[in-house]
Amino acid sequence: MKKLALILLVVFAVCLPAQELDPSKLLHPGTDSWPTYNGDYSGRRYSPLTQINQSNVSSLALAWAFQMRSQGSISSMPLVVNGIMYATLPDQVFAIDARTGREIWHFQRPSHGGGNRGVAMYKDRLIFTTPDAHVICIDARNGKQLWEIEIADPAFKGFASMAPLVIRDHVLVAGSGDAADLPGFLESLDPMTGKVQWRWNSEPKPGEPGSETWPQDSDVMSRGGGMMWVTGTYDPELNLTYWGTGNPHPVESGEPRPGANLYTCSIVALNPDTGKMAWYFQASPHDTHDWDTNMTPVLFDANFEGKPRKLLAQAAKQGLFFVLDRTNGKALVSAPFAEANWYSGWDERGQPIPRPETEPKLDGVLVRYGQTNWNAPSFDPQTGLFYINERDNIGVFYLTMPGKKAEGWAGRDFGVVSTSFLKAIDYQTGKIKWSRENSGRGGFTGILTTAGHLLFTADSSGNLLALDPATGKTLWHTYPGAVMGSAPMTYELDGRQYVVMPVSDVIFAFALPAR
Question: Looking at the annotation, which residues are catalytic?
Fold first, then answer.
């Protein structure tokens, strides 16, 4: 028995190096893998797989399910590399057989609550952030911890939830803060040691470009805001990585910080080797409504006004849709995806001009706006449509801490009317091509499109859906008993395509019936 055990150990050890991620998998939409948070660097969440398509999707059936043993809902995106799925809960990582749903190993540390959106993979290492603002690296072969660092002080309510982004030998991570006035930043870490390679601050220091958009007679510029908490995207040809930044602090109070407050509520393009900013676009200047711009900057190459362009599209939390030239940040389309009364038009850069009369007040102010959140959009190159789940909102915004000394959360907002929709946006015009109303107040589930002419998502009643991406027509649905809080993903192994949908604390994998 000892000899057999030794043989099995040797065989297992020989097989382990196969778990190393081939970096080329990150450059193109995967077929046998889903190697990073958005599937590839573009953020399109579009798969070239066609085995499951409009002609057979009605036969989709459950292939396997994996219980995550959580007290809450999964908000992370699994990875699939070399037939192994890596799925997370806060402070936990599971390795799962992607063909059967069988658990292989499980990493767990003492829980600190909070959320987690997934892991990143570098060679044979998995790297993830924790609710107490740590970054942890573990061995993908066995789940053993290799290193751990702290990126923000949890004593000041710092936390981290984003899935890191690996670009060559850089691991990009960011910490966040809630009630405390913490400054936003993005750091590049050495994947072998966790050592900081560079740091980009979303709030400039006095005298730096952008500092003129903050008051010069106070320390508010250094005290907080601009946190990044959704994974960015990357263009390897331009060698630029794109990120959305959070809202300024104090939250919902603009009096202590007159000015545009760069680089909060912005899309920024950074060099991943140095952290140097190439350009920015501010989607919500001088934000006073907690409308951060962290939503995924989606990259695609397509014709615009008859010419091929390198484009970036984002549907932001304040109800506006933008298409930018990602080489320079120039706005090509600026348009609302829902009715709004908080802005009066566009400036010369295509940025919205806020209406001061809609800022929060002591006795409240009624604001109409659209809203997305961190859950993933998708762009389908076959239809030329950009898909979002969003809410059309009417809410009352109150100022709770007036004056120039306000800090932290200085306002509150309360919804009056909220209707959820799945919307398809024409990227060339910003106009809504079709819209599908969801029941209830939900609407922040992620989206996947495929070359099989399918759109996978869920509605706010808990139905998992496959739709025609050209029209929104329902082609397949099932009810697993809870609402999906993450996004669908897909991969193909041994000639069988799987569509994975995390629901509550269970990962469901669907496939066509085996022949």
Answer: 290
